[in-house]
Specification:
Elements lengths: L3 H4 E6 L2 E6 L9 H16 L5 E6 L22 H10 L3 E6 L2 E3 L1 H8 L2 E4 L4 E3 L13 H9 L1 H10 L2 E3 H7 L4 E2 L5 H15 L14 H18 L5 H14 L2 H16 L2 H15 L17 E4 L3 H12 L4 E4 L3 H20 L5 H8 L2 E4 L10 E4 L5 H14 L5 E4 L6 H6 L7 E6 L8 E5 L6 H13 L3 E5 L7 H18 L3 H11 L5 H8 L1 H12 L11 H7 L12 E2 L8 E2 L1 H14 L8 H21 L6 H11 L9 H8 L1 H12 L10 H9 L11
Parallel strand pairs: 2-3, 3-4, 4-6, 5-7, 6-9, 10-11, 10-13, 11-12, 13-14, 14-15, 16-17
Antiparallel strand pairs: 1-2, 7-8, 15-16, 18-19
Helix pairs in contact: 2-3, 3-4, 4-5, 5-6, 5-10, 6-9, 6-10, 9-10, 10-11, 12-26, 13-14, 19-25, 20-25, 25-28
Bound molecules: (2S,3S)-3-hydroxy-2-methylbutanoyl-COA.
Family: In the N-terminal section; belongs to the enoyl-CoA hydratase/isomerase family. Belongs to the enoyl-CoA hydratase/isomerase family.
InterPro entries: 3-OHacyl-CoA_DH_NAD-bd, 3HC_DH_C, 6-PGluconate_DH-like_C_sf, ClpP/crotonase-like_dom_sf, Enoyl-CoA_hyd/isom_CS, Enoyl-CoA_hydra/iso, NAD(P)-bd_dom_sf
Protein name: Fatty acid oxidation complex subunit alpha
Length: 703
């Protein structure tokens, strides 16, 4: 436990007391920091030699906010609102000098100061909404008084970080300064204010102009938020708090904020979102990182210029890397180059890039049809046709041409990476990098670790993910790795529910009601039903003949109804509509398949649909953890949060299961097993955890 003396230091510079927070890594406002701040402010009041106080952060951040790890634990005094009120009430001038992130509670501390200075690298924001919360230390009352009600509400609802200049324009910052030293810049500003006899400008006393207009804007914002926040709890509470800032005296508004903050703190959405925040930062902590450093990563190559190859090329270019793209002939490489340029032309069309910006990026792009062009690259990503022989042929070329130590990665989404590695002379350099389409947009990157790979190759893959701003998850080798393997199972559960009585449209509606943007049949139509069809045909030879198999999707694909790209799939897309319509012919196919099997359809409620859907997902997730395909349950959570549209406020399938209770999940599986003991076979790990009274979280400590 850190003590307040070590995390908050007070040093006199002339008649200015500099209070600096030193609580690595981001100066979170844990209890020791709050205690230290309180004491330092009190001491400054009592010290006749002190005329003013300057608050700064040490390290890279000003203050990144409340200590998120404290949520859900018993509150420890002093509370952050108390500390902020104390700063604001100071009888001596208080200035905050911001040189890095001032987020959430960090910005609340700064807003309770009398003046604020920002250096170029400052970032100011109130992103509590991303954690299912709202600014709970006066931010919803002070920000409107500094920047206006609507702008303040929008800042809180978006969770955006403002640059120093944007923050000044918004009214959050009074003075910009150059450099990186908040003490020097802050002291100069404090002394200037003292010389001017600047008043103690307490934010609580600032008026909100034109309350009627502000309330009208908030009405509109509330209606818009109700539509957009899709079941989220805290956004509407934020609007309510800002309304209180307009309508109520400060202290009453503060009380309202506190009450609504506690409601958010106690909501399951906060638990899910906080879990997601930390889980995404845990996935990079893998065993291989303990003893290995990344290899050089200065030049990369991508083999293949199709959708995936071009997307991966753009991801690498956007990460600042020089990229050589290899295709088999002039026509193919021209197509590959066009695929890359299309992405940047799209950004230019949207006004998000200039021609010069595109040219600067493409200066690092080298198209080629000769493998000799990649002799000196540090890492190669193969993204050619999903056929093991085609991939082995590419790896033969890589083995022949690439320098010793080059990392050789395959983007395969299901082929056996151990087999690919074993086909060349350097299996220790081979790894799987499973990108998700579009590869330059989707955050998830499954880093698939074959049996013989060197640890430093794994660490290099995680370094590449960091450079690309991807969310990496370590996966073991199996068919579908983590995501697609589990997807195949809960998709099967959805097919069973459909054949047993629910329509695909009812199932999609239930899944959307759970918080997904789309249901599984909509996703199939979007991705293209022919992809799943090819997978089913590939697996047909090895499929367990005793396993229940639903043929509805095959009937649909046999008609060439592959989804949006063919104008119909499970849904109809008249005139290329983006939103599909129910198709009576699909319902007729479903009925015909039921009759073939003598199934009398029964009704399913949305709740029943989701209990089966989630039980299947969680059960397979438990098997994936048990087999070591995923290191921990949190790796399964992050896979589904960042690659499969799982609703973030639920924290991921395994977090969701913990919140429902594993006994209830197991009970469901055992009930469903009476209908189909083969499909609904409880994962031994799930049975073990329930028997021991534990949850998945107990397995999340890094292995
Ligand atoms: N509390 C505890 N730990 C935190 C933290 C926080 N607020 N922010 C970051 N960390 C840890 C993080 O888990 C990681 O740990 C390390 O710091 C580096 O983080 C009352 C209630 C500041 C932009 O939401 O956005 O204030 O993995 O990898 O990429 O109104 O961290 O090293 O062990 O993200 O340089 C509001 C959250 C809180 C900001 C830096 N504040 N943090 O990004 O590093 S709620 C936030 C960030 C609140 C009040 C309310 C980012 C960052 P480890 P990192 P980064």
């Amino acid at each position: 436990m850190t003590n307040e003396a070590s995390v908050v230091r007070a040093v006199r510079h002339g008649d200015v007391q500099v209070i600096s927070i030193s609580n690595p890594p981001v100066n979170a406002l844990g209890v020791a920091v709050r205690q230290g701040l309180k004491q330092a402010i009190e001491q400054a009041q009592a010290d006749a030699g002190v005329r003013a106080v300057l608050v700064v952060g040490e390290g890279k951040a000003f203050i990144a906010g409340a200590d998120i790890r404290e949520f859900g634990k018993p509150p420890m005094p002093p509370s952050l609102p108390e500390v902020c009120n104390q700063i604001e009430a100071s009888a001596k001038l208080v200035v905050a000098a911001i040189h890095g992130p001032a987020l959430g509670g960090g910005l609340e501390v700064a807003m309770s100061a009398h003046y604020r200075l920002a250096l170029p690298a400052a970032k100011l924001g109130l992103p509590e909404v991303n954690l299912g919360l709202l600014p709970g230390a006066g931010g919803t009352q002070r920000a409107p008084r500094l920047m206006g009600a609507k702008a303040a509400a929008e800042l809180m609802l978006s969770g955006k970080h403002l640059s120093a200049r944007a923050a000044q324009a918004a009214g959050l910052v009074d003075r910009l300064a150059e450099g990186e030293d908040p003490v020097a810049a802050g002291l100069a500003y404090v002394n200037e204010l003292l010389e001017q006899g600047a008043p103690l400008r307490r934010t609580r006393n600032l008026a909100i102009a034109d309350k009627a207009a502000a309330l009208a804007e908030l009405d509109a914002l509330q209606a818009d938020t109700a539509k957009k926040s899709r079941g989220l709890f805290s956004p509407l509470k934020i609007v309510e708090c800002v309304r209180a800032a307009v309508e109520l005296p400060f202290d009453e508004g503060l009380a309202r904020e506190r009450a609504l903050f506690v409601e958010c703190l106690n909501s399951p959405q906060r638990a899910g979102l906080v879990h997601a925040f930390f889980a995404e930062r845990e996935t990079a902590k893998v065993p291989e990182a303990r003893g290995a450093a990344p290899r050089a990563l200065n030049r990369v190559a991508v083999i293949g210029g199709g959708t995936m190859g071009a997307g991966i090329t753009v991801a690498a270019l956007d990460a600042g890397l020089p990229v050589v793209m290899i295709e088999r002939d002039a026509e193919s490489i021209a197509r590959g180059q066009a695929n890359v340029e299309k992405v940047y032309n799209g950004l230019i069309a949207k006004g998000r890039m200039t021609e010069e910006g595109k040219a600067a990026i493409l200066a690092r792009y080298t198209p080629s049809t000769s493998y000799e062009a990649i002799a000196d690259v540090d890492l190669v990503i193969e993204a050619v046709f999903e056929d093991i022989e085609v991939k082995k042929a590419v790896f033969q070329q890589l083995d022949r041409v690439c320098k010793p130590g080059a990392v050789l990665a395959t983007n395969t989404s299901y082929l056996d990476i151990d087999a690919i590695a074993g086909s060349i002379s350097r299996p220790q350099d081979v790894i799987g990098l499973h990108f998700f389409s579009p590869a330059n947009i989707m955050k998830l990157l499954e880093i698939v670790v074959p049996a013989r790979v060197s640890p430093d190759v794994v660490v290099t893959a995680f370094e590449l993910a960091r450079r690309m701003k991807k969310i990496p998850v370590r996966a073991g080798v199996c068919d579908g790795f983590i995501g697609n393997r589990i997807l195949a199972v809960y998709k099967q559960a959805a097919d069973y529910i459909m054949e047993d009585g629910a329509s695909p449209y009812e199932i999609d509606e239930a899944v959307r009601g759970f918080g997904y943007p789309m249901g599984p049949f909509q996703v199939t139509d979007l991705a293209g039903g022919d992809i799943g069809w090819a997978t089913r045909k590939r697996r047909a030879a090895t499929r367990d003949p005793k396993a229940r198999y639903v043929e509805v999707a095959d009937r649909i694909c046999e008609r060439g109804w592959f989804g949006q790209k063919t104008g119909r799939g499970f849904y109809l897309y008249p005139q290329g509509a983006r939103v599909g319509q129910a198709d009576p012919e699909v319902l007729a196919i479903v009925d015909a398949e039921r009759q073939k099997k003598g199934i009398a359809p029964r009704k399913f409620t949305a709740e029943e649909i989701m209990r089966r859907y989630m039980a299947a997902m969680v059960n397979e997730g438990a098997k994936v953890v048990e087999e070591g395909i995923a290191l921990r349950p949190l790796d399964v959570d992050v896979t589904f949060l960042s690659g499969y549209g799982f609703p973030r406020f639920r924290g991921g399938p395994m977090k969701y299961a913990d919140m429902v209770g594993l006994p209830a999940i197991l009970e469901d599986i055992r009930t469903f097993a009476k209908e189909d003991p083969l499909f609904w076979k409880p994962a031994p790990l799930l049975e073990k955890l329930v028997a021991e009274g534990k949850d998945f979280a107990s397995l999340n400590q890094a292995r």
